[in-house]
Amino acid sequence: MISSKQVLVNGGQFIQQHYHGQASMGSKGASGHREYSFNTANRETAPIDILMEAVAPNALHNSGATFDKPKCHPRTRVKIREIIMCWILLGRDKDDQAGKQFMWLNGAAGSGKSAISQSTIESCIERGVLLASFFFNRSDSTRNHVGSLVASLAYQLYCAFPETEVQKEILSAIQKDMLIFKKTLQEQFTALIIRPLMAYFSKAQSFQHHTPFLIVIDGLDECIDRTAQKAILACLAESLNKSNIAIPIFVASRPEHDIKMSFSSKSSKDIHTCLSLDLEDEHDANSDIRLYLVDRFAEIKDAFDNRTTGRKLDQDWPRDNVIESLVWRASGQFIYAATVIRYVESTRHRPDHRLDIVLDLRPVHGDHPFAELDSLYAMILKSALDIEKVLHLLSLCFMGGYRICCTVIEKMYLYDEGEVETLFCDMGALVRFELDKVYFPEERPLHLRFLHASLEDYLLDAARSKGFHINMEYKSIEHVTHALRYFASCCSSSFHPRSTAGTPMYLLRSVQNWMVRLDDDSLITIPLELRQSMLSFPLKEFLEPHSTSGLAYQYLLRFFVTPFLQLLKIMASKLTLYSAIS
């Protein structure tokens, strides 16, 4: 049975038959049927309604869905914001050269990109700059995809130019093709952004030397479809290359592999300027974070002292050494400092107790101070091409000692050339490859640099990292075993003297640190692989190429032979079969 509440009928003529003598309403027609006429001709949906329906309100910079939008703390990020505003208002880049139309701001996860984008928009509005923005967010299903991007930008463009050619062109484009938002990204952008602006500025000659319109796209890496990320950048590049009006476009994202490749493409490399937060002066970032922490802790202290009748906080809370410790842990990334502040400022707890939990001076009860940061790390690690190898190499970096060149790592673990870079291609939000030709004389002097000092704390804490946890006792044994096999292979090489003598001293120092980790407590049992590597190691052959060099020989004795023999002694004490070793 179909209820009348389930049926929607538009237009047409309805005829009801007089059936089985039942009474019916309406007048009889010539056929003897009851006829009902409704004047309900189809009403087409207005273009403005189609546009509004396709918009993602949460993606707008002034959306009411987010109450605490991130923005720069006063007197922080001054230098970087000045560079961006100079590019927008004067068309000049950071070297005072003629600016390009496309600016890409990139930085590690939690470096403050969205705060800079939001603060830049607010500065532009204060100066009367017309703009449209879109803030991607992977956890919001209305703005983690490309589907609503152009509609949202077009809506803001429509509002920015009331009663002008812009509005007419946008509505006309939708009227001509009511499925415009189902078309390709390029067709949408051309019809709803480029052509309306061209129509307007072709008549507004007095605006020729002013910024016509600014487009801000924040968090491009938060678009969950990587193919769509590339499509967006390709669309923007093609539009800038083909249009004859200057539309400055500001994009902020993490330096993810696909995005980097898109900006390096032929169509984009000559029309964009890159601004990297990771390459900015680390001193400036640390100074900004220190200022932020000092100001916010002062606010927290005042608020607590004013609301409590009990014991006040110490006058010098928190002490300078605590601030410096937090600055170091933040490693230039604002998300760490902001996470600490959000945790400590809870009005249901004492701020000093909450800060002690952050500093591991008090056990955690209830919510964990770094739950937000942990979710971020987990999300990025899930995108790894081979998480087992990634965690293996990260543990190598946590072992202590000296930085190790990627070339040496690949030789030591029998990886293909360039494999380390490939493994970390989607980890740009957490690590970066750096060149150091002075420290590394090798042909490809790349090494890994962590962008988050707190990543190690996360991965070594099983309760926080769960499936990503790194067991350093197990990994220490594994790395020492691999290093000994690598050194032994150098001895058996046909180029033995050259390959052994060429063993980097920083690697020997690192292996020394690894072997020192293997003490009585960590070596409860001796794994077979380590036992074999130790007992079969050709120590005499390994030392031989260095015997004529007094300094190098003494170096080897101190930083390799001594810890090697100490480890052998520990093995002897645990394996009665090999007691003669001692």
Automatic annotation (TrEMBL):
Which InterPro entries does the UniProt entry name for this protein?
NPHP3-like_N, P-loop_NTPase
In the UniProt record, the signal sequence range is none
Q: Which domain of life is it from?
A: Eukaryota
Question: Is-annotated flag, keyword Repeat?
Answer: yes
**Positions of the Nephrocystin 3-like N-terminal domain:** 95-254
Alphabetically sorted, this entry's keywords are: Repeat
User: Which protein are we looking at?
Assistant: Nephrocystin 3-like N-terminal domain-containing protein
